[in-house]
């Protein structure tokens, strides 16, 4: 059995540690922060509680597999509750729509809102997305990528290539099936689940709404952060050592393979295997600054970084009638949002805060997250450009965060959710704060975006350029979000076993 060091106690690192610990490896997890969880965090203040990362779990089978392979089943450890409706949407046309769980229910919701044609259109789109899921799940999500050779299986059957349509963007696929502008806007939002622009993200991202609608949306009472805590407990039960406030300064590589890591302060932790759960850009730029990281840096230069997010944690007095678990308020001009975030189109080279953003609100009706029944805890997120002072986007500029927060509250009020007179306090988290807290470059939520047909092959591979080095988590293959991070951990655990 190998000595394994896992760098980072985010969900990817913890999941890998639990799997490897159950296999008998000697595993140590090193986390630079004072607590575990990475982006899957929790803030408690004055009796209020907020998930500061993901707010729902899709494809729970990924974590059921993790817990079954390491001990007691997931449901013996955590309570999973379905979120239904999954989300309430408000469109610029005035349409309001509750999207329920289950593919048939989603189509009926569209039919009830916009007529039978809209329901039929969504059914046809969902059927195509299911076909893409069936073709791509194993080679692209559950296995390590093998460069262009991964496409060979599909290439043997031209019909499969036509189904996946690697030449089409997600928006382009939506235009083939969806006539209603509200449905196209609804589909566009799923590109942001990977931090991407729907005009450039591949049609294969149709699998994101497919998974959500086919397998449901789930919540853990008390907050999604409990998933990370449960995985950490499972890892520790198999002898894994977790050290917080242990910042890795360098991955040590000899002439033939990794030798361990060096911490800030000089301590060396020897290892036969190093699993990096930090963002790939941080790994190759900061932890492997020598020639052994050259290949990783070159690959990252060809990729587009993902978007970031501007977050407000709102402590509110009173209750909101009819409030759903999730609410999305769409803008008049969705393209303008992506141009501002990525510095494209009308904003070419000038990424900046979105003046009229899509607003995402997570407000679970959860007694564990509020001081009493006459208060609410809201997590409010808008898509935002990365913190990049060198290119002119400086989220630390004096007054910017507070003035932008006031603007978002005003936009919420204009769209029918005015909470300003109920606000007890507002804690703001900018992309610069996310960068400092997680060492993600510029606060990129997902590392590399999925912008471009070749984006899957530009995402850092799970096997690093030095023998014994592996990458796990949202910035490596197969991507970000709780399901893909869990799949990444399963891939890496298998690779370590074969190394």
Automatic annotation (TrEMBL):
Pathway it works in: Carotenoid biosynthesis
Alphabetized InterPro entries for the sequence: Amino_oxidase, Carotenoid/retinoid_OxRdtase, FAD/NAD-bd_sf
Keyword entries, A-Z: Carotenoid biosynthesis, Oxidoreductase
UniProt superkingdom: Bacteria
Domain Amine oxidase: 11-302
Family: Belongs to the carotenoid/retinoid oxidoreductase family.
Protein name per its UniProtKB record: Phytoene desaturase
Originating organism: Kineosporia succinea
């Amino acid at each position: 059995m190998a000595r394994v060091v896992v760098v980072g106690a985010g969900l990817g690192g913890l999941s890998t540690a639990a799997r490897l610990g159950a296999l008998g490896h000697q595993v140590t997890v090193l986390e630079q922060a004072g607590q575990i969880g990475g982006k899957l965090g929790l803030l408690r203040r004055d009796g209020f509680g907020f998930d500061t990362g993901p707010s729902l779990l899709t494809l729970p089978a990924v974590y059921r597999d993790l817990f079954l392979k390491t001990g007691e089943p997931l449901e013996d450890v955590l309570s999973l509750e379905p979120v239904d409706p999954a989300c309430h949407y408000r469109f610029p046309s005035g349409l309001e729509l509750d999207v329920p769980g289950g593919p048939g229910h989603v189509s009926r919701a569209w039919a009830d809102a916009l007529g039978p044609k809209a329901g039929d259109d969504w059914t046809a789109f969902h059927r195509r997305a299911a076909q893409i899921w069936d073709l791509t799940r194993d080679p692209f999500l559950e296995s390590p990528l093998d460069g262009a050779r991964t496409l060979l299986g599909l290439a043997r059957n031209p019909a499969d290539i036509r189904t996946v349509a690697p030449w089409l963007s997600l928006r382009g696929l939506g235009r083939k099936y969806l006539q209603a502008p509200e449905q196209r806007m609804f589909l566009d939002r799923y590109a942001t689940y990977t931090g991407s622009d729907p005009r450039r993200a591949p049609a294969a991202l149709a699998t994101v709404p497919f998974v959500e609608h086919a397998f449901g949306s789930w919540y853990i009472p008390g907050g999604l952060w409990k998933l990370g805590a449960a995985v950490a407990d499972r890892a520790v039960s198999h002898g894994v050592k977790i050290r917080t406030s242990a910042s890795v300064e360098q991955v040590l590589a000899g002439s033939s393979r990794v030798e361990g890591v060096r911490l800030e302060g000089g301590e060396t932790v020897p290892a036969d295997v190093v699993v990096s759960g930090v963002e790939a850009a941080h790994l190759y730029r900061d932890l492997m600054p020598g020639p052994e990281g050259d290949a990783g840096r070159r690959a990252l230069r060809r990729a587009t970084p993902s978007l970031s997010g501007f977050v407000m944690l709102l402590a509110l007095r009173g209750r909101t009638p009819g409030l759903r678990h999730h609410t999305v308020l769409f803008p008049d001009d969705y393209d303008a949002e992506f141009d501002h975030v990525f510095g494209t189109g009308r904003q070419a080279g000038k990424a900046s805060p979105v003046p009229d953003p899509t607003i995402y609100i997570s407000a679970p009706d959860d007694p564990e997250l509020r001081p009493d029944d006459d208060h609410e805890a809201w997590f409010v997120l808008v898509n935002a450009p990365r913190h990049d002072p060198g290119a002119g986007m400086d989220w630390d500029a004096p007054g910017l965060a507070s003035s932008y927060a006031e603007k978002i509250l005003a936009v919420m009020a204009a769209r029918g959710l005015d909470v300003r007179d109920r606000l007890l306090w507002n804690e703001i988290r900018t992309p610069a704060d996310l960068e400092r807290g997680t060492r993600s470059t510029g606060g990129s939520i997902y590392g590399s975006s999925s912008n471009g047909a070749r984006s899957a092959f530009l995402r850092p591979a799970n096997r690093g350029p030095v023998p014994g080095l592996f990458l796990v988590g949202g910035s490596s293959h197969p991507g970000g979000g709780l399901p893909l991070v869990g799949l990444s951990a399963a891939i890496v655990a298998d690779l370590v076993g074969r190394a």
